[in-house]
Write a structure and sequence with these properties.
- By secondary structure, the chain is of the alpha/beta class.
- It folds into three domains: about 240 residues, Aminohydrolase, N-terminal nucleophile (Ntn) domain (Glutamine Phosphoribosylpyrophosphate, subunit 1, domain 1, 4-Layer Sandwich), CATH 3.60.20.10; about 190 residues, Glucose-6-phosphate isomerase like protein, domain 1 (Rossmann fold, 3-Layer(aba) Sandwich), CATH 3.40.50; about 160 residues, Glucose-6-phosphate isomerase like protein, domain 1 (Rossmann fold).
- It is about 35% helix and about 25% strand.
- It has 18 helices and 25 strands.
- Strands 3-2-4-1-10-9-11-15 form an eight-stranded antiparallel β-sheet. A seven-stranded antiparallel β-sheet has the order 5-6-7-8-12-13-14. The protein has a five-stranded parallel β-sheet with strand order 17-16-18-19-20, sandwiched between helices.
- A hairpin with a 2-residue loop joins strand 9 and strand 10.
- Helix 7 runs antiparallel to helix 13, helix 8 packs parallel to helix 12 and helix 8 packs antiparallel against helix 15.
- It binds 5-amino-5-deoxy-1-O-phosphono-D-mannitol.
């Protein structure tokens, strides 16, 4: 939610920040703005809409101190006034997160001290508070401001009288890019990756004072901290489309490689060494959205093959009820971004209760990865399309890795490892030989879609429905095939396509019966199967054949056609595939 990029160096930072904002657009794209320092003045330029709209307002501006922001609205509708940066006398700030006590602060600043607010945002109080405390010492005023605000924030601030940028992080990510005579601050490294791969991830309650020739990290009390400079392992190509029309399509097509990267090196050492597996009695998986569906797949795998109870929780629900947690539970957070606020808070709650925690996270150095302190990195590379694809399939690999770690049967482990090694080639052949576009074309105008499956593929049906609705805006529902007769069957008619996953396993005949029920009500059937037989041929209007893989990996091969159906329908219907309306890639607000 919201992206920040700031530059302090010797070059003109305006084009650098604008290019960076474009790369951060996946985090929010309803309005954007920059502030730049020119002599002892600050200039702010803002626009409603995408970065292109902002670019159109830039008229040769030049500055070597620039901050920029792309917004996903929380407080105040997306418009020019509510766009960041927000200003007070000689101060400009950009903010990602939510200032929870903004209303009382605003009231006090307005009524007691006569501050005039321009926007409806929670963020504007930050700028006025810095001004309120400012008596010539920018750093001191900034720190005093921090003592007043509650909530989550990544903040970067400028003051017209200081050749400095001051930043702080609590709950929303900020990373420093350390270049040659230049320093960047951003929500993630993508906007400065073509300038430097040297980074310092800020931890909770850390701030940085950036000067033209140095930077100093401090805690919120002002004590200096030394932090290691890390090197980003991926290159600029991983954040470019590389000839694909959309990031989502690129990311779908990367899955043979990303899966390999996820299990490589982890077969022997799955990075969970500090958890004593003998000690935990139950696994609790907490996640949101697509990651939640991956967690459900994990439950099927672990309970069936290792017989350890697994509880799967929507992180947003888990936090606000009274979860029955015990110190013998291993609580695992699953998250692509590693920044989802609800998942992060769920882990904090689990830690308070004394549970062991671990993360399955894609983004290195992210808040959830840091909070968990141990776990499995997905190594799927940056996922930029707002619809999660490759992270889901890597999460299923990671859950299998966790299962191998706790499973005691050497034969089972050997078999899984044998099969996992075959997967990348099987996925490659699926991606190369699929012909899903004509099917998407046929159903692109459907008013409603049903996705149905049983057992381990039931969560995949829900994921297929989520993919379609979030990028094409066609209502869709994922349902356990056996539950259809208890309600959704009322929706079936000759206009409604049902996507069935029919894997050749013990419940195959049951799914076939459910297809019969749809057929006899004239519903259309798209069948994703790993073997065609006469019944499938008779019942299905369209058939997509996927490779035969071990039961644990069937969700991976079955989800790929669903990702492609959603992608092609959205693209054909002219939707913005990578940046669907109302969504943002990482939900750092609750
Ligand atoms: O980064 P996370 O995995 O924690 O994100 C969770 C959800 O916000 C995310 O999966 C969301 O549902 C995607 N838009 C799904 O495509």
């Amino acid at each position: 939610m919201c992206g920040i990029i700031a530059y302090l160096g010797q070059k003109n930072g305006v084009p650098i920040v604008l290019k960076g904002l474009k790369r951060l657009e996946y985090r929010g794209y309803d309005s954007a703005g920059i502030a730049l320092k020119q002599e002892n003045n600050l200039k702010t330029i803002k626009a409603k809409g995408k970065i292109e709209q902002l670019k159109a307002l830039i008229n040769g501006e030049n500055s070597n101190i620039v901050i920029g922001h792309t917004r996903w609205a929380t407080h105040g509708e997306p418009n020019h006034i509510n766009a960041h940066p927000h200003t007070s006398e000689g101060i400009a700030i950009v903010h990602n997160g939510i200032i929870e006590n903004h209303a009382s602060l605003r009231k006090e600043l307005e009524h007691k001290y006569n501050y005039k607010f321009q926007s409806q945002t929670d963020s504007e109080v930050i700028a006025h508070l810095i001004d309120f405390f400012y008596d010539g010492d920018f750093e001191d005023a900034f720190r005093k401001m921090l003592t007043k605000i509650d909530g989550a924030f990544g903040i970067v601030a400028l003051h017209k009288n200081h050749n400095q940028m001051i930043c702080a992080r609590k709950g929303s990510p900020l990373v420093l890019g350390i270049g040659e005579n230049e320093t960047f601050v951003a929500s993630d490294p993508s906007p400065f990756l073509d300038h430097t791969k040297n980074v310092v991830y800020l931890d909770e309650k850390q701030m940085v004072i950036i000067n033209p020739d140095s930077y100093q990290i401090k805690d919120f009390n002002g004590y200096n901290l030394e932090k290691e400079v890390e090197k980003i392992s991926y290159g600029i190509e991983s954040i470019q489309k590389q000839g694909y029309k959309h990031f989502m399509l690129k990311e779908i097509n990367e899955q043979n490689e990303t899966i390999k990267n996820c299990f490589r090196g982890k077969i022997k050492d799955i990075e969970m060494v500090s958890i004593k597996k003998e000690n935990f009695q139950r696994i609790v998986l907490v996640a949101c959205g697509t990651s939640y569906y991956a967690a459900l797949v994990g439950k099927y795998i672990i309970e069936k093959t290792t017989h350890l109870p697994v509880l799967v929780e929507h992180a947003s629900e888990f936090r606000y009820r009274q979860p029955m947690l015990y110190p013998t539970d291993l609580v695992v957070a699953i998250s692509q971004s590693g920044e989802t606020a609800d998942t992060l808070e769920a882990i904090r709650l689990a830690k308070k209760i004394g549970c062991s925690t671990a993360g399955m996270v894609n983004v290195t150095g992210s808040s959830i990865a840091k909070e968990c302190g141990q776990g499995i990195y997905l190594h799927a590379g940056p996922e930029i399309g707002v619809a999660s694809t490759k992270a889901f399939t890597s999460q299923i690999i990671a859950l299998n890795m966790l299962n191998l770690y706790i499973n005691k049967d050497p034969y089972y482990k050997m078999k899984v490892i044998e099969e996992i090694k075959k997967l990348p080639d099987q996925i490659k052949s699926l991606l190369e030989n699929q012909n899903i576009k004509p099917i998407a074309e046929k159903y692109r105008n459907a008013k409603y879609f049903l996705f149905m499956a049983r057992d381990i593929n039931y969560p995949v049906a829900m994921e297929g429905a989520l993919k379609l609705k979030e990028i094409s805006y066609i209502p869709a529902e994922g349902y356990p095939a056996g539950e259809m007769k208890h309600g959704p069957i009322a929706l079936i008619d000759s206009e409604v396509p049902s996507v069935f996953i029919v894997t050749k396993d013990s419940i195959f005949p049951k799914v076939i019966s459910n297809m019969e029920e749809v057929k006899s009500r004239k519903g259309k059937i798209i069948c994703i199967c790993d073997e065609i037989n006469e019944e499938i041929q008779r019942l299905a209007d369209d058939i997509i054949v996927v490779p035969q893989v071990k039961w644990e990996f069937t969700p991976i091969v079955n989800v790929i056609p669903m990702q492609l159906i959603a992608y092609h329908i959205a693209d054909m219907n002219g939707k913005n595939v990578d940046q669907p309306k109302n969504l943002a890639k990482s939900c750092t607000v609750e």
